Amino acid sequence: MSKEIQTITLEYSGAKALAIMQEYHLSHLAILSNNELLGVISEEDIWGMHDENNKLESIKEKIQHFFMPLGKDVFEVINYMDEHKLSLLPMLANGKYIGSITYKSIISSLASIVAIQESGGVIILEMMQKEYSMSEIAQIVESNGARILSAYINDVDDRDVIKLTLKLNIIDIAPVIQTFERYKYTVAASYNQSENKDNLGDRYDLLIRYLNP
Question: What mean pLDDT is predicted for residues 26-44?
């Protein structure tokens, strides 16, 4: 997530918004009013203005209310952005705008998280930060004859809750999930390469399409 990507307001002209999009190589920008997120405006909608020198106020009905609350896993974010064809997605924490994620950055995150060159499954655990023990988690995984290829931690909210994304070297992750649940871990989500369009297989396809346009 980046706070460096410039946001705009309804006072910006269409031409200025297009220049910012060109600078960041984006086709969407977040629009704020008094630091509150109004939504996202697209390059296509701005090009459709009668006069690009007019303020965005003149096309405020074109603003789309796309955003994602902080704490969603990378697969959910990619699925949402791909579904709505977004190059940028605003992120909210407790209803407040905190920055935006670009499609390019989230795909790069996916590549590092899932160890794309290795086959296997992904398990996402949710827990209190004080309950996190990588040694115990690794022991549970290894007790099922598997090993961890990569691990990624992200904060969910201000309740000290974290999500731990694990990429394992096996596709049949059901026994590992059952063991985690037996140890009272919360399995927030799981994916593997053999699953259908709604799961990790499709996310792999998205990544491959991005890396090999």
Answer: 95
